[in-house]
Amino acid sequence: MKKRPSLKDIAKLAGTSKVVVYTVLKGRENKGIFVSKKTKEKILKIANQLGYVPPKSAKELFTGRSDTIGIIFHRLTPYFSSLVELIQIEALKNGFEITPYITNGNWKLEKHYLELCRDGRVDGIVTIAHTDKSIELYKEYTKPPFNLKLISYGPPIEGISTIQFDEEKAGRLAASHLIEIGCKSFAFFGGERNSGRCNGFINYLKEKGFEPVIFVKDKFVGYYDDGLKLAQEFFSQKEIPEGVFSNNDILGAVLIKEAKKRNIKVPERLAVIGCDNTEVCLYTEPELTSIDTNIKKTAKKTIELMKKLISGEKIPQITKIDVKLIKRKSTERR
What pLDDT, on a 0 to 100 scale, did the predictor assign at position 274? Predict the structure, then answer.
């Protein structure tokens, strides 16, 4: 089955009516409607095999829809909070409510929320940011008997519909701009070594004859506290690169702050580019150049794809959103 099993599905396989199935699953047999032991056992066995979960609401029971979309994310960073807000706006325009679930990066909590959503409280789920177990969980819960309708925001996952901004292009745009303003040495800062934005940045520079540095850790670094520690290590190097592309705007802001402490002038000595083009860019001094990942279009496309998925239509395996460079003073060299 490609959808969450219903009373109708069980009734058809059991060769009985929805009323009888409902009576058995609610434990009300022999209270007005007689159900034989054989029929009861057959219904329970089929329900178990199909992975049937009782609907959360009466509305979903009769219509097959809750008109609600779940969003699973890990932390309310400036970027993710803006993205969730925009997804909510687009959802409301299309007759959907949203229900947010915050995991704080805990895969067990993520699994818990996926399990909750089996009861029909949401028609589909958007996942934003991943834990170490996320890919395994998404593959499990989008297959029988669970059959959750899920779209993942982020790197492509085999067998899962994903939406992402063009990370390779983001990295190449950042590298091109740093070369354009006269930088001779370069580094990618934070995030993950094999991310699309890192690969795009590094590959472009290598094509132009440069040997950039990848300044990352074994684990993902994208938030302030870990970013601050990484920045302190970065500025402890004997030779500090002239141009840096940070994995996100938070890390770009951290680099500018730490550079100031060390009397390293930005952008004269160190040019910094962020990624996401959040409000954080306007809070730094100088203001941070960044890659605009077009989250308005991302939110609109996410709901558009989710509507199709809920309706049973096929959607692309990967949907990419275009990006552009927003120049500000952190790379403004005369």
Answer: 98
